[in-house]
Recover the amino acids of this structure.
């Protein structure tokens, strides 16, 4: 257990280091000088030179990299070349918004996939199971932004049940927060839910064939309780893998969905950064997204160990 | 209805194929009955029919009655069957390596058997009882906290036995319980099975293809081939004076008594389900077959002792 933790932590740190180099290098090799990009083509050479000095862009790239990395480690994301505002607090605020969105999307996906996949597996020979399969196939093919637009058309425009867009922090007005969260969460989560459903289905099908499930039935458990008590944890192992991958997809999906629903999250921040040519901001946001994905994978790995005692090193 | 288990006219089919035909079988109170035959004879399907846990698409017809249960088991719904399984009727399966949930502690899996049927007042009592059951199968109380992967095959099979016996079932069915185990632990597991059923006066239906095991464990035996019971009777009688030619062949091949017979085997293989000959199912492998064997031989003898063969072995040949 401890060994695995150390090993996984080492892998995490190495991946973080490598990806920070990649992100930094990618931004550095982009044609054009960040100061020039930030100020625009019409800026005078003096102004550009001044900005370069001000932000240390005249120093060697390695120095700049370690400066940037050191800042990240301390939680200091630097200062925007464009707005001259500190980037850290913006990312922090926006990240919370995106986190709500991703978590809500995940919840939607799970709430859809867990029962639907289980029913599909349990009734894989019956009409109800096949019908569900067809619906999920359809769901997989719908992109999140399209789902979002369809939802807006139905629930905001036609029925007027929900606000078409916007964002209210939960502390300010919980009811409004939830109302506004519903549609973005659905458009993110339904599609992922459709994908996840198929993994849940195959995981449950697998478990249903296991001998220990027959043992559970032979003990006197009815089919559903047997699956619940003895199947869920076993089926969860492969599903958690997919869930980890999907979190990454959800983060990316959030970028788009935030646009559709006018939500001030990381995605909007990133797109704003791109359109304002705020390179450091873009670099920081991308790095934060990468860190989030890597951390999720790390946690998924630990979750395996919690789920499956066979993976606990030293337990033999 | 003094029998613990009474199976009448059991027929098992899958789509158009018949896998088990017209099996009659009884097990008396505290009796230990063996069910033998080569692999593919229909032994497991017979056991699973009694338990009501046949695989998908496989259907049983006929009658199965169990003492203490006031309804027919064949065709009973899940609600009723779930009250019977694990309570009046329990089963130990062939493969101990996969029979236990890998993500649940062994102690919880044993305790659950009692909690499901509320045969103990609560969790604490269930755990205490589980520790005691572990002791009965000679495993230390620390085993409670173990996960299955930390145990050997023999230890796991003892756990399965412990949880099968947890509610003192009227009938225990063991389907090749030692086949997957090391020879060194087979004797111990067999001994624990017999001790376990004797201590509870439970009846035992013991399935195996190992005749030596039947000889040590069982009092009565049924010989199955091609989905039918071809011979039955007291173990001593059937093993010393087999009448059906299939039983005769099995005994010759098993080398139960003499070494000269070591190389004798039944010619050919067990056909796949649905491809047994008409009439006597054994006739394509039988050295004694004649034209009359293309008609199904009728049962000779009593319900509990008899055989179905047109040209039975002479009673004197093996005595
Ligand atoms: N689910 C199934 N579908 C079709 N045939 C099956 C199924 N289960 C078992 N059989 C066939 O039924 C026959 C008897 O099987 P089984 O009862 O397992 O034999 P035994 O336990 O005596 O070895 C075999 O020929 C086997 O292939
Ligand atoms: S009935 Fe005929 S074929 Fe069948 S076992 Fe007897 S002698 Fe052989
Ligand atoms: Mg079998």
């Amino acid at each position: 257990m401890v060994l695995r933790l150390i090993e996984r932590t080492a892998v995490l740190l190495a991946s973080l280091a490598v990806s920070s180099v990649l992100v930094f290098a990618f931004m550095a090799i982009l044609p054009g000088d960040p100061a020039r990009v930030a100020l625009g083509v019409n800026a005078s050479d003096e102004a550009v030179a001044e900005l370069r000095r001000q932000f240390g862009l005249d120093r060697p790239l390695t120095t700049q990299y370690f400066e940037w990395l050191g800042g990240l480690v301390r939680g200091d994301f630097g200062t925007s070349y464009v707005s001259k505002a500190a980037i850290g607090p913006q990312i922090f605020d926006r990240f919370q918004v995106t986190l709500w969105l991703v978590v809500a999307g995940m919840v939607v996906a799970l709430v859809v996939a867990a029962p639907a996949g289980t029913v599909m597996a349990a009734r894989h020979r019956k009409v109800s199971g096949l019908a569900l399969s067809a619906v999920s196939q359809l769901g997989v093919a719908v992109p999140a932004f399209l789902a979002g637009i369809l939802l807006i058309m139905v629930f905001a425009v036609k029925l007027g049940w929900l606000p078409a867009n916007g964002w209210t922090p939960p502390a300010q007005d919980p009811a409004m927060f939830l109302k506004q969260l519903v549609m973005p969460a659905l458009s993110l989560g339904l599609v992922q839910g459709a994908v996840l459903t198929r993994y849940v289905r195959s995981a449950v099908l697998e478990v249903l064939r296991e001998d220990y499930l027959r043992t559970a039935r032979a003990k006197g458990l009815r089919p559903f309780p047997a699956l619940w008590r003895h199947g869920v944890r076993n089926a969860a192992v492969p599903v958690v893998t997919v869930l980890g991958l999907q979190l990454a997809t959800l983060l990316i999906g959030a970028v788009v969905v935030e646009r559709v629903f006018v939500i001030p999250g990381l995605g909007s921040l990133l797109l704003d950064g791109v359109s304002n040519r705020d390179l450091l901001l873009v670099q920081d946001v991308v790095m934060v997204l990468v860190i989030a994905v890597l951390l999720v994978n790390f946690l998924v790995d630990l979750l395996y160990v919690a789920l499956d005692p066979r993976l606990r090193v030293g337990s033999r | 209805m003094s029998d613990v288990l009474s199976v009448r006219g059991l027929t098992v089919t899958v789509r158009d194929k018949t896998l088990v035909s017209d099996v009659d079988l009884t097990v008396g109170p505290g009796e230990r009955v063996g069910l033998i035959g080569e692999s593919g004879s229909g032994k497991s399907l017979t056991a699973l029919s009694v338990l009501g846990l046949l695989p998908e698409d496989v259907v049983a017809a006929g009658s199965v009655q169990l003492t203490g249960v006031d309804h027919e088991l064949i065709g009973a719904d899940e609600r009723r069957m779930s009250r019977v399984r694990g309570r009046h009727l329990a089963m130990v399966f062939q493969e101990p390596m996969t029979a236990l949930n890998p993500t649940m502690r062994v102690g919880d899996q044993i305790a659950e058997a009692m909690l499901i049927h509320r045969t103990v007042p609560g969790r604490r009592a269930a755990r205490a009882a589980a520790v005691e059951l572990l002791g009965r199968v000679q495993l230390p109380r620390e085993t409670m906290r173990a996960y299955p992967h930390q145990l050997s095959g023999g230890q796991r099979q003892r756990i399965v036995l412990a949880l099968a016996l947890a509610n003192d079932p009227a009938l225990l069915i063991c389907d090749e319980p030692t086949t997957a185990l090391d020879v060194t632990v087979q004797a111990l597991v067999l001994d624990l099975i017999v001790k376990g059923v004797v201590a509870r006066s439970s009846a035992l239906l013991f399935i195996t293809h190992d005749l030596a095991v039947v000889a040590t464990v069982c009092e009565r035996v049924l010989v199955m081939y091609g989905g039918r019971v071809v011979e039955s009777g007291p173990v001593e009688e059937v093993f010393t004076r087999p009448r059906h030619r299939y039983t005769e062949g099995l005994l010759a091949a098993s080398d139960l008594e003499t070494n000269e017979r070591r190389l004798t085997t039944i010619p050919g293989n067990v056909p796949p389900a649905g491809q047994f000959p008409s009439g006597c199912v054994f006739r394509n492998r039988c050295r004694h077959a004649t034209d009359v064997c293309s008609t199904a031989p009728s049962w000779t003898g009593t319900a509990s002792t008899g055989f179905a063969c047109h040209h039975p072995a002479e009673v004197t040949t093996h005595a």
